[in-house]
Amino acid sequence: MASTLGSINPSSRERGWSRDGAVIAPASGRSDSAARPALASARPSAGGASGWRYSTQLNEQLSAAQCSRGFVDDMLSQLESFKSALSQQLSQRRLDADGLSAQRDELAQSWQRRQQDSLDSLDGQLRLSLGAPSRQRFTVRGLDLDSLTQGAPETLVFADGAGNPPAAVSVGEGAGRGEILRRLNQALGPAGIRCELDDHGRLGFSCGEQDWPALQASLTVRGGGVRFAGGVPQRLPLEAEAPALDAARWQVDDHAQVRMTLQDVLRAIARLQQTRGAIDHAIDEARQSIAQLSRVDEPSWADAFVSDFNARLNQRGDFAPLQQLVPALLGISRYRVLALLSLR
User: Fold this and answer.
1) What domains can be seen in the chain, in order of their start residue?
2) Which of 61, 98, 318, 334 is in the most buried spot, having the most CB atoms within 10 Å?
3) How many CB atoms lie within 10 A of CB 38?
4) Contact indicator for 180, 151 with CB cutoff of 8 Å
5) What is the distance between the alpha carbons of residues 109 and 89, in angstroms, rounded to a whole number?
6) pTM of this prediction?
């Protein structure tokens, strides 16, 4: 499915970004979670026949949500153990710094497997994205709405270093905020970059998390001498959104550091617990939708499945479905298919 099942934002002060500047309310584990609308769109209509074309995507989303829950549960278990160890060490005169460091390093290693273990459904802020890969949010120093909408006109030329042609954006001279967003999205979209606003109206960007390292090292801009220098393109300073958990930075060498680390651990536990509640809600929604789809009559399902199968198989430039299909068809002859069809 093109839309995500939900977007989990653990903090009420950190609402999601919207491409058109509107604020996206944070999801939670309650019944009013943002997971509900996306799932509702996948449910069959009154006729029921069209619903089956979403069954494959729903099962994929359900699997991703279950993997995400497994990752969250593992992190919670490790954090609870680390919290107990930190609390115990605070009551002692001497610290077992080596033991605490070993636990911390294990936590950091587990966090590094987040993308893999969650099937790329949990981003660095533990927001859930089912149906689309997780994204990395970032800001760009020198690119803010005030400077882009006001001042002398200038043409900014962006290049991503990935083979896409350079994209020019006209800024300044009183251009509106919405117009600047539209121009940036149009120019940077081919590079997989979205231009968005946060809940304070500040300009922000996002890209696929797997694309972030290359983009961070290669995104450049050439200006006209107003906001950015002309001539040779210069690399843009990109600043990634801080992750929800950064165990590698936790210090445990003395009691003061242990106290600070304990506070960070408690915050991480609270965030993971909220994420788990929202994942559980999303899983329940997916199961309800799948149960509704299962009541569709078989001929309608077969027709919709064929259409869905053809659409997936004929995606341009994507050989992944074909790679999965060919091994499954090995050894299946035309005569076996005809024999099966004759049983109907």
Assistant:
1) 35-131+255-293 (no CATH), 142-236 (2.60.40)
2) 61
3) 20
4) no
5) 22
6) 0.69
